[in-house]
Each structure stands twice: as C-alpha cells, then as structure tokens.
Amino acid sequence: MKLQNQEWKTYIDSRNTGNFDVIRASWVGDYNEPSTFLSLLTSTHSGNISRFNDPAYDKILAQAAVENSAKARNDDYNAAEKIIMVKAPIAPIYQYTNGRLIKPWLKGYPITNPEDVAYSRTMYIVKH
C-alpha cells in the first residue's frame, strides 16, 4: 500500500466517490450514547465513509433505537459491536485527548461532556 497525500478538495472527492482502499476519517460524539458512533456504520448513514453494508447490523441498530429498556438497548449495541469486530469495516487507531490543568477551587467543570466543550455557566469558584 502506498500513502498518498491529497489536498483537501481531492481528499473529499476521493472520500465521497469511494476512490480509496484505506482512508483517514474522524468523528466526535455529539451526545453521550453509543449510537452517536454506531449509527455511522448503518448502510444509509451519510457518514458511512467505509460504505459498510450489513442488513443484520442495520436491523440491530433500528431495534436499539426503539427499545424502552436501557438494558435491551445496550444488549443491541453489544450485538452491533460484535458484528463490527468480526467484519472490521473501520480500524480505530487513536483518540483525541485534551490535557487541562484545573485549579481545585474551580468546580462545575463538565467532565462528562462528550463534545469536550466547557460551558462557563456551569462553573463556579469555591472559597480557597
């Protein structure tokens, strides 16, 4: 395999037409729930860059979307992840991290925020 550096427009064209064997892509979860990532691999999702198409996977994700029980939904997500592990349409190679130094007297920092956005309205300073 030969790596090929491309200008942005060429890269987007290659990605949109499927003219690649392997391509780099990324996604940032926009809500704190597994479907933010798992839905990307459904056959009709516009973000399905790999063009992965598995009717069983699509069915599991559709079922998860209508589950009322968190346990049943998580069971569906686990089944979907097993399909991804076997068929390997993507190969996650790294995850972004942001290091921060936060003084102990700053409280309300959104540690569980999946978008890694800090909202000042939730922060406050305690006496120190």
Automatic annotation (TrEMBL):
InterPro entries: SBP_5. GO terms for biological process: peptide transport. GO terms for molecular function: peptide transmembrane transporter activity. GO terms for cellular component: outer membrane-bounded periplasmic space. This is Periplasmic Murein Peptide-Binding Protein MppA. The lineage of its organism: Bacteria, Pseudomonadati, Pseudomonadota, Gammaproteobacteria, Enterobacterales. The gene is mppA_3.
